[in-house]
Amino acid sequence: MTGLTTQPVRSPRDGTEVDVARARGRVRPSRVVISILLVLVTAQIVLFLVTNERFEWPVVAEYLFNPSVLLGLGMSIMLTFVGMVLGSILGTALAAGQLSEFMPLRWACIVFVGVFRGVPPLVQLIFWYNLAYLLPRLSVGVPFGPELFSWPTNDLITPLTAAIIGLSLHEAAYMAEIIRAGILSVDSGQRDAAAAMGFSRWHSFTRVVLPQAMRVIIPPTGSQVIALMKGTSLVSVIAMGDLLHSVQVIYNRTYDVVPMLIVAVIWYLVVVTALTVVQRRVEQRFSRGMSRTTARRVMNRVEAQA
Amino acid sequence: MTGTQQITRPDAEPVLRVSGLRKYYGEHLALDGVDLDVQASEVVAVLGPSGSGKSTLVRCIDQLEPIDGGSMHLDGELLGYEHHGTHLRPLRDVDVQRQRRRMGMVFQQFNLFPHWTVLRNITEAPIRVHGMAPAEARDRAMELLGRVGLTDKADAHPRQLSGGQQQRVAIARAVAARPRILLFDEPTSSLDPELVDEVLQVMKDLAEAGMTMIVVTHELEFARSVADRCVFMADGQVLEDRPSTEFFDDPRSTRLRTFLTRTGGAARGDADSEAVA
Question: Which of A1, A103, A240, B270 could form a disulfide with A235 if both were Cys (CB 3.0 to 4.6 A apart)?
């Protein structure tokens, strides 16, 4: 039966059926203007890159795969990895400590995070590198008692160890805040239920709370990895052979400052882009089953704290 | 104590004995000298207006909240504290955990672990905490799921279940470790009305199977028909503690009479939890 079907509406202009399916796009003036501006700016940038001979693209090409540059790149990636692993482990402990019922531990962790989040990483790196000035010798022993082992600080604090200590502690402070926000996002009823069933605190934290906190912890952690990768460039000031330092060594010899920096920029962008792709994938996986509003609210909270 | 009616059965040692229990939240006295004995296989319903301290009472019994005075004994064992010389001191965490393992708790918000399947929610404590063999724990979990009518949901995740189903799983989880006593903290208060009965039926089955239970609830009809005793709390005190029929048919305190009238408990079978909240 077509009893409910009405006659198609005819256009008073030409008598054809009115059907939005045949509508065409509408010209939006603001978008036209923006498009023209973007084309102009892009053309200007390309022209600048191509015609300005001081970029010295042949030099860039020559050094892009230079062994010492690649070695520096490897060092930067290694520092990112080590800093992230150590930072996450220490950060988890700090986050748990900040939420502890035991006041002295809670305050110790809060102060630690406050200090290492507040001191610029560059300042920290220089500080750790100059530790020998404060402590000529490092020793292991009974506090206020006899020493068991002792080493000259300068033998232990190399650019590598100073870089790892500085970056890891800085990272730990940031990860502590991210992980703390993750732990707080887990409903307190989960801890009640775990306790009521007789789980130990460790069992409750590692099996019940942390797995549920991961949904909140993972996305900002991806941003942290990228920030740390770029942050490794700071270690060049303590003569650590990272990517930036390796190109600096070259341009100090050849005076090709800009082309060598371009080499570094290209590699940073390659690595960061690769990390971004990975981050998106991981985020998509962990955001499954999480409502969008919750995700946004939690992300805002984490960003506000960072 | 303020007109507390205690039923005494001198022949049996109670499973749970709460004596003079006091609990502060800051300045607020949430529990003001609560006495409560629960015998084996007894079902005790705890009723009272919001803020009367009934949820606090069961949370204190399960040691989810620290207490500030009085004492609690489970099978004659002091809960949360031990004698040390001439005084008492708090137990170590592991001992508190050991004591909690002899109690089961069912929460208003279910509190199932959302990242685990229904089956793992039920088997985790028997396996990891009580050292039961995984196969045995699994068989027991399936048997319990059968008793709450959810055998087909063993591999589902809690979020895929309705509220009533989740609470039935939570009850199975609490029973899995064979507790001496089951504590219910308003088990049906966050359920849609049409899902309340399926949960109450599971609780009734447990009561008939001889489980010792304390049930904080607004379900007056359940209290009247299933509970052996009803306890009325107001302002952190137990005002009445009497066999269920007497409790409803012959309330002594004015507060209880007003409560029953307001919530429709005086008129048989007309329980309305909303009127209380």
Answer: A240
